[in-house]
Model the fold of this input.
Amino acid sequence: MNRQANNSDPLLLRGARVVLSDAVWEGASVLVEAGLITRIFQDGEIPTGGPARIYDLAGHTLYPGFIDLHIHGAAGVDALAATGPELGRVANFLAAHGVTGWLPTLVPAPDADYARAVAAIDELMHSQRETTDGARALGVHYEGPFVNTAQCGALRTAYFRVFDGARSLETLPVLASHGASHLITVAPEIEGGIELITELKARGWIVSIGHTRADVATLDAARAAGASHMTHFFNAMRPLHHRDPGPVGWGLVNDTVTCDVIADGVHCDPLLLRIALRCKSSLRLALISDAVAPAGLGDGEFSVWGETITVEGGRTSNARGSIAGSVITLLDAVLRMLALGASPVEVAAMASHTPARVLRIEETCGSIEAGKRADLVALDAAGRARLTLVGGREVHNSLA
Done:
């Protein structure tokens, strides 16, 4: 696409079903100026001023753009091995599925792989300041390497680490791009885990608990040290036991932490997704894809992280028989939660507002409100993304 960064012309999105943070307005319209939402018109109101561009969205539902906190790749591209332009391909793929912001997510790897991957993310973020090319890269998510080998999932234990002081973090490159988010998944029970969380918090990182077998006392200490989120809740963590609630029980009742879930029909039983929503509410629950490079390519065998990943019927598996990420988009997760009975307002929170709050950017995006970025997606009656805007700029358009 490579559209030039010119969004000065006003834009009116007219006649949509608009999902706000507390209500759904039928037949409403949204005015976008200079990349921001400036006004939302209820049914029957007629805006004046003659916007240069008008999109008729009758029959469509307008959501805040989706934000994916945890995605390893898609469209054949792996974030750990990609160049900046290859990450741009992922960004375009995501935009076509309603995602307007994402965190390229890195699995435990050698130092050189980390350095190359972070340089590529920086390259993409720099290029996206000049042109509009798909969903915005918002930072980086390190899934590990400071996690528990007993809950490794599909991660490669050869690259797991323990914390032995601040120098342990020097091999985790940081992004040079201004305002970039740094999210990291940590198991607090590893050697030096609480000290690690304290150090990360002091550096401004967002610390998430995951790939863990921690007990409640350790989890309480992790929260006090600065961990505020939980990664792919229920998965790669010790399961709930009635005499030893562990991470699942702690996370379900702890209102000071947010959690994310993979709503792909594989990682979690639908009943557990409903339990998570009931316990956490949509304001403390985020949807993620945890997608890997084969997402969007259909069934087959693919090389990911040095091993063969098989995709069959929407389920991934590695040679050990473990689930190895997903092949969904965040839009798929949105549609699944709607099918399970979540309201559009709840789904907008889980796919947009809560992820923005996790990243501490909710003041500027994550909901449809006057003054916020015009990061928006219009879904048709079949749930397909027909129009995606990033900062008011068109990054995907398949309107008839």
